[in-house]
Amino acid sequence: MGRATYSDLGYRLLGELLEAECGVPWTRMGRSFTGLQPAPWKEAPVQVPPGGDREAWAFAAPEGVGFPVPSPKLPHDGNARAGMRGHAGFGATPEQLRAWLPRWVSQGWGRRMAVPTAIGADGAIWGLGLQAALEGPGRFGALLSRIPEGIGGVQVLVEEGDALAPPAPAQAAAPGPPTGWWYHTGFTGPLLAYRPSDGCCLALLCHRRGPEGELLDPEALRHRRWRMLEGLVEKL
Which residues on neighbouring strands pair with residue 209, listed in sequence order? Predict the structure, then answer.
């Protein structure tokens, strides 16, 4: 297509392109390749007006699904809550991710996605649904590059507690070179990192709500992800 389109629209266009090429509905392909069920909202997204989660739920909820029990570990968004189960992130529970990610790695889907496709205005390198992790102070690549080569395997880390993380190191304006790692972050908090060279795959399940139920800004969320990833890197 020759153009990079951000986030939701990009994935919708990719789904339409695959359907046109394969002649198979996107949701059916997703079920057959991953074993996961598609999120339970309708094919066309429902526009949710501003307001509290309970008011938004009437517009976004699947038929017959009651309003979830309030929890700081659920995303702060009516549309997302209509599709989230168990934990904020990737529309799956930690147990589902632990079972599915080894299959995702072994079937080569991560390698297919880790292909440089477009360069962002800020120097970011985008692939097919993943972003290259770059070196540089305060960047996730600086942490990921410390993980020894050749360990492989899948690690899924679930955040415990609701306390805000201490600040992460300041992020340098100019990125460094690629590290060999690729990653994806979700609006509701999670992070997935993958290294094609040895199939090492890391998933962080954290939530975007702070201890008072507030929606964290991107920098506070980066702090939270940084501290989780830092602990996992030390462990590995």
Answer: 215
- For residues 140 and 229, the answer to whether their CB atoms sit within 8 Å is yes
- The answer to whether 232 touches 155, Cβ cutoff 8 Å, is yes
Q: How far apart are CA 96 and CA 100, in angstroms?
A: 6
Q: How confident is the model at residue 211 (pLDDT cuts 50, 70, 90)?
A: confident
pLDDT tens for residues 12-66? 777 888 889 889 887 788 777 666 655 554 455 455 555 666 666 666 665 677 7
- Cβ burial 91-114 (10 Å sphere, 16+ → b, else e): bbbbebbeebbeebbeeebbeebb
- Return the closest-CA partner of residue 90 out of 37, 53, 164, 144: 37
**Could you state, in order of their start, the residue ranges of all structural domains in the chain?**
7-81, 94-235
Place of tokens 């008011």: 55
CA 26 to CA 38: how far, in whole Å?
10
